[in-house]
Description:
The structure is a homotetramer.
Chain A: E1 4-12, H1 17-27, E2 31-40, E3 45-53, H2 61-75, E4 78-83, E5 88-94, H3 99-109, E6 115-116, E7 120-122, H4 128-133, E8 138-140, H5 149-161, E9 166-170, H6 178-183, E10 188-192, H7 204-211, E11 215-222, E12 232-239, H8 246-269, E13 273-276, E14 279-282
Helix pairs in contact in A: 1-2, 3-8, 7-8
Amino acid sequence: MSRNFRLILDCPDQVGIVTRAGEVITRNGGWISEAAHHSDEESNWFFSRFEIQGDSLPCGIDELRRQFESLKDELKLNLRLIDTTEKKQVVIMASKGSHCLSDLLDRWKSGDLDCDIPCVISNHEDMRGLVEWYGIPFHHVVIEKDNKAPGFAQVEQLVDEYKADCVVLARYMQILPQALCEKLRHKVINIHHSFLPSFIGAKPYHQASRRGVKLIGATCHYVTEQLDEGPIIDQDVVRVSHSDKVDDLVRLGKDVEKTVLARGLRAHLEDRILVHGNKTVIFS
Amino acid sequence: MSRNFRLILDCPDQVGIVTRAGEVITRNGGWISEAAHHSDEESNWFFSRFEIQGDSLPCGIDELRRQFESLKDELKLNLRLIDTTEKKQVVIMASKGSHCLSDLLDRWKSGDLDCDIPCVISNHEDMRGLVEWYGIPFHHVVIEKDNKAPGFAQVEQLVDEYKADCVVLARYMQILPQALCEKLRHKVINIHHSFLPSFIGAKPYHQASRRGVKLIGATCHYVTEQLDEGPIIDQDVVRVSHSDKVDDLVRLGKDVEKTVLARGLRAHLEDRILVHGNKTVIFS
Amino acid sequence: MSRNFRLILDCPDQVGIVTRAGEVITRNGGWISEAAHHSDEESNWFFSRFEIQGDSLPCGIDELRRQFESLKDELKLNLRLIDTTEKKQVVIMASKGSHCLSDLLDRWKSGDLDCDIPCVISNHEDMRGLVEWYGIPFHHVVIEKDNKAPGFAQVEQLVDEYKADCVVLARYMQILPQALCEKLRHKVINIHHSFLPSFIGAKPYHQASRRGVKLIGATCHYVTEQLDEGPIIDQDVVRVSHSDKVDDLVRLGKDVEKTVLARGLRAHLEDRILVHGNKTVIFS
Amino acid sequence: MSRNFRLILDCPDQVGIVTRAGEVITRNGGWISEAAHHSDEESNWFFSRFEIQGDSLPCGIDELRRQFESLKDELKLNLRLIDTTEKKQVVIMASKGSHCLSDLLDRWKSGDLDCDIPCVISNHEDMRGLVEWYGIPFHHVVIEKDNKAPGFAQVEQLVDEYKADCVVLARYMQILPQALCEKLRHKVINIHHSFLPSFIGAKPYHQASRRGVKLIGATCHYVTEQLDEGPIIDQDVVRVSHSDKVDDLVRLGKDVEKTVLARGLRAHLEDRILVHGNKTVIFS
């Protein structure tokens, strides 16, 4: 991958934001290869994403950041400047189910996910061999049913140690403690096995079977303190029929889960997602 | 369309149902062009649909029905025998929104819906001209906000007069009285403008926008006394993004609504739907 | 619809295009509600689309156009400035098949297509009544099998008279003469009833049936002198099975044809399409 | 998985096939849990698939086969009787690309593919470690560019030794010799990385990029002597845009390839596919 810089910003809407941000980039020689802007009329908020060719910016990202300081104050920008050569550290948490984990590992090894995976954390030993074949450290952290705090303390410590930029719950099946959710705000990506807000809570495929729906789905979202209520990143569905039992729904759902999770993670890694309230702006 | 007979049955599951039903058809020379059978293990119930070439059955459908009598009793069959030359009478009910109505009328005129449309009933005058251009009687039946009974009595009378086999609520926007729902059990097809069970109730597109979903959908279902809870016939979805406002969701949703409603109606007209409890078996 | 201005441009890629175009907009007070930019690395070409709130530009579109003159020369811009209150004139051409025409008319009447439809031209009388119900002039222009020139001369005259900005071939079934294609370059939108480049030419549904494909599709494209080879605007598919005969493919295909044609037309009307060589950039 | 028997047949169409086949099953006490029948009018051919609960047939499958002998001759049946406890032996052939292989292995280990995988054959060493982690023998068989016969002789020997019922080309990238195609007729499943018949031959994603299509796809088919021309089992597509370069098409296509290949293999394993000429009947 060639080096790119990304400028991600959102702020109260007003005249001239694109031009003034663009002006800082241009006066440094920055070559914009892709850009998108969105104005949300309801909240009067503005969102913007620029992708800039790194070799066109001899000044470097720190100098660019410095030059944005005054604009940041003036326009009240939430601003991120990203250097794509600094790979994001993605910690994956998994349980016994292997489909999402296995899928992510293959994508990563094939070069289709632009990140490092410094470790995998699981509350079961099952996937250790596979993870280690990929050359990734595997940590077995037991979450005791009646005493979850010690396990989650260890999880938090690992997340800190590995300097995780992002935590992916690849069908992890455990609910993160509220404090950890808050600490990792908009950094924890979950895949929920239903087309939210349908079938919130436990055993969504059983719920779907009882209701007799003709499509089932999966939802990738940021984790918040409200279970299954976080900002939605991506969703998809697959057709089912009367002849599909719960087991079939589970099996068919896996394909959607792993695809949607990988798409959501990719959008996160490419800094295409801006969260505003409980909704996401996603620049495709 | 050539004449076909259809045998639709469901009953408690046991050995020999296909063979014994087939035996009645075969001894009369019936040429089966298509058949499908489904056994629901959970409820131990059996479902079957045979399509038989009409010209292979010189005995006629009444004689065939007579010959099925003893089997019907013995196997406790719910049984329908249909002659495809007796077109179903489909009464369409519409409001001001034209997309579903206009779509159904064009399909019907193009010969893609094998039914008669003896009349259209609407609580608004708007669509009279279009309906009448298609040569179909148009009845304007006002449903008074504070006194709905007289209007619905008139609706019921029209449905009776026209001997409706099926009533299609093409975004009718009014809730049918409970008694009418019961009288027309599994004969009233509604299109709900959400991917049920998400966003039950009023203004689903507003609800969808607030939740920030990435797909919106529509659901075609039989109307029961429980609003939006009837057996689902078909569903579909369309992708939306952060840049779609409620108006855009409404517009994008229309495409799904009309397509799903037409598909559901077609399945009904081809006797492909068997209702069991609150779920449908649909032989494609 | 509120008044918006749209700035659509493409040019050889270089540093500063977004900023300099934005600068012209901003110094006039222009409020950008939406913008997207794309750089094609292979051809080193840049594409850009700005949507600007009309009431934020007291100078008016002519003055804005004047101010862009020098930038246009300097950056070698292909540039369009559009005032959304000047509705595009869309002439629809149809044949006997009604599904696309009927669908477009309903969308237009419902306010979902932001254009005028000054007339419909058809080589058959069948749809006159429906078109006239919508209050739109209907012209029956016969294309003689052995002498097509007079008919097409009349078509060209009508297109000129009505000052058509866009001509939609709604399953028109006739091939436009080469000279007309050239004259109306990137203004004629066709819907082809296959997933191009599969099944180019005649009777694509018959071809699809013979090949035994499991999905069929439709393709909306700009018409060029090379039949079925023009720049693709949109495509979609629908699932079919072994039990679908050619007639069923035709019927199922209609849903895709009308949906894809309407989506393509909408993208054209919103000035989201930039043609480059034989490909399209479509800002969603 | 519980034991089931499957009866798969096709034959010239005539009156009474379902009934007479059903009669044999019923007189032995066979409990039909699922059945589907299809009559192809064009070729006047009949296709049928019965799924029978094994424990309802005390006579066993050999006795059932014996009892079908006379019917087989009389009705000219192509007939297969399958015992689901005899797992099919599926040999996977792969190259360097891992996405299909990795996906199939995970599905298999998760119990979602009802087969044995006695070995994986590859012309590269890359995937040995992963395959062996799953406990499956890995054979590295080099296909020399200028002398392919010895390599394919070894492949054939392995296929024979492992008594392969099915060979899956999981992006194998080599063309099997004609004699092997014929020997393994309707037993070799390939995944082609285009929506056939579009972009037959080499580098379909490059072809797709040049043509500017808006959807790309993949096709699962049985391998025949005619490259990319065999009977199609399944296909699917994914949306792409102007901003997707060839590399992106390759990446996006992988998701479709692996999903479609797995679906096609599953249909094969469940004996849902009947080949007739160059087309497939697939009982879902």
